[in-house]
Structure formats: structure tokens, C-alpha cells
Amino acid sequence: MYIESKLEEIDEALFSVDLSEVRDPNILQEKIAGPTYSWLKAKTKIQFTKGLFIVDTYFENDRDLTDIFSISGEYIQISYLGKGDSHLMCAKESKPVGIGCVNCCYNRNTITTIKMPANSPTHYQALFLSKEYYLQLLKDEAWVANNSFYKNIMEGEFLEWGTCKYPIDYNLYHILNEVTRGDWKRDFKKYYLDLRLKEIFLSLHLCQEELERATFKGVKDENLEKIKTAHAYLIEHFKNPPTIKELARKVLLNELQLKRDFKKMYGKTIRSFVIELRMEKAKSLLGKYTVSEMAEILGYRSVPHFINTFKKCYGYTPKQGLNQ
Questions:
Q1: This prediction's pTM
Q2: Which of 183, 194, 167, 173 is nearest to 262 (CA)?
Q3: 258-262 own/partner pairs: CB under 8 Å, 24+ apart
Q4: 99 pLDDT higher than 80
């Protein structure tokens, strides 16, 4: 499997890796500063081994930017756009990538043109697995017997990008970030990474089952995707959340519809969801930062307010939590 990302406007490759030539069984890691221009900043981290490629990329561009993404061989792709307004350019149309959804596909020998408009910073994460790596990874997982995506791959039935997409939730968001950061020690990195990849595929399977069962009574079909986008946007920005008015503008709904349909779909208000996200993150920060630092990281202007919210959620203060 060969993967290349080339920026058309400057005629430079951001990265190009031939995974078939990789001999080291460990995960190789490389940070790429990216090209330096007055109008473009790019920061990329790639990790790879034979049959597996992981990329985490940020772009800040003052001009329109085009990424020509080439992949040879059969591959499974999982990708997530956390920020930006990117579009895939097809022969007949331009498809918005859309923030807040995890896209999965199974394809081979593709060249994809991705357009990123000026003054709209982009952050995307993507995992690419060869068919052999994917099947070896999941061969002992019982749940794959009931997974349609796995069956398509077993039978060699390709699924184009956009065919399978799932709304992001906090658990999946957290695992994706952990995988793309790749901060594990080198000796155990491959082992931990494979465990996390299994978690991702299981999470997507459970998400698929939930979507098949879900019925959102009272929510119009045309609003479903907008509410899912709002939900995903909050997951990405819970440390500095938008106002209801700002969020409503972003998803093109009026404020009343947004608040009403969000609660119908997720069983909680937008405010309570943001607090829930902050508290989940807060628990993971215990012992790593002071209480004041935790409050600042999570976007609280008042430390006492953060402490009270934490205690209301867990029944003890952050300081007491350190001793448990």
C-alpha cells in the first residue's frame, strides 16, 4: 500500500510512504513541519508500519488549498474532520466532507482531490489499514459475524467514501485522539495500538446497531443531520463552547428548534451535555494538573465554580478524588 498527500498549489508532497517497503515491525513515527509560506502553515504527524498508516494534520491557509490524496492497493479508511470546510471533488459534484462524522470506506487505487477554502483552518485525522492487516486484527472478534462492513470486506465488495458514516461520540473522539497522538512507549506501542484499533471498530459497530434501532420521534428528517452536527461540534469544542445562538447559526437552525430537537435526540439539554463532557475530561486530568490548571484547561473562569460542578457530578471534590 502506497500513500501520498500532495499540495497542488505549491507542487510539494506533504508525505509519501510505501508501506510495502517497511521492514521494522514496530510503529514508526514522524512529525512533519510542513512547507513554510506566508499564507500556509501545515503540521502533520504520521505513524506507520506494514499495512497501517495513521495521520493527524492541521492546515492554516490564507488561500484556497488543494490536497491530492493518492492511495494504491486495497485499503480500509477511517477518517474524521474535526475542523474546517473541506470538500471532496468528484467528476460530477463537490461533496462536503462534513464535520462531526466518522467516515469509513473500503476501496482500492484511488486519487482523491480535497479542496480546503481560504481562512478556514482544517484539522483531520485518518487511519488506513490494508485488507490483510484489518482481517488479521479482527479475526478473533465475535461481533464481526454480525457486522455488514466486515462482510463487505470479506466478500471484496467495495464501499466508496461517504457510504458508511457515523456521528462521533465522546468515547470514539477520545480513542481517535489517543491513537493519532501515539504517546505509548515504543516497546508496547504496537500492542496498545492494536487494542485501540479494535476498540474503534467495535465502537463503530455498536454505533451502527444503535442507528438501526434509533427512532427520533418528533424530529424532522431534515433536522437530524443538523442536530448530529451540533452534537459533534460540542464534543470538539466543549472546553470553549459556543453560545446557543452561535451553534444555531452554525447548523442553520433557529435556537428553539436546536434546543428542543437536541433534547429529544439525546435526552439532555445542550448545557448539561457540555457539563458532562467537561466532567468526563476532568476525571482524566486528576493527578496530572493542579485544580486551578484543570479549571483553566476546561474553560472555567472560576475555580470554585469548577470545584462545585465536579462535586455535584461525582460526590467529591477534585482534591478528594486524588486520595481515592
A1: 0.81
A2: 167
A3: 258/226, 258/227, 258/230, 261/218, 261/219, 261/220, 261/223, 261/227, 262/227, 262/230, 262/231
A4: no
Residue 227 has which C-alpha cell? 442536530
Work out the pLDDT band at 213, boundaries 50, 70, 90: low
> What is the residue whose three cell numbers read 465502537?
203
Q: Work out whether the CA dihedral 13, 14, 19, 23 comes out positive or negative.
A: positive
pLDDT digits (tens, 9 = 90+) for 27-82: 888 888 878 899 999 999 999 999 999 999 999 999 999 999 999 999 999 999 88
Distance CA 174, CA 281 (A): 9
Give 203-253 as a 3 state SS string: HHHHHHHHHHHCCCCCCCHHHHHHHHHHHHHHHHHCCCCCCHHHHHHHHCC
Q: Which residues make Cβ contacts (< 8 Å) with residue 91, sequence separation at least 6?
A: none
Q: Cα–Cα distance between 251 and 154 in angstroms, integer? A: 37
Question: DSSP per residue over 146-208, as a string?
Answer: G-HHHHHHHTT--EEEEEEEEE--HHHHHHHHHHHH--S-HHHHHHHHHHHHHHHHHHHHHHH
Comparing C-alpha atoms, which of 164, 59, 50, 173 is closest to residue 117? 59
Residues 6+ apart with CB under 8 A from 60: 40, 41, 42, 121
Residues ≥6 apart with Cβ < 8 Å to 188 = none
- As separate numbers, helices (DSSP H) first and strands (DSSP E) second, the chain gives 11, 11
Distance of alpha carbon 260 from alpha carbon 246, whole angstroms:
16
Report the distance separating Cα 278 and Cα 272, nearest Å: 10
Alpha-carbon gap, residue 297 to 252, rounded angstroms = 29
User: Using CA atoms, how far apart are residues 140 and 186, in angstroms rounded to an integer?
Assistant: 25
Find where cell 458532562 sits: 276
**Which residue carries 459534484 as its cell?**
93
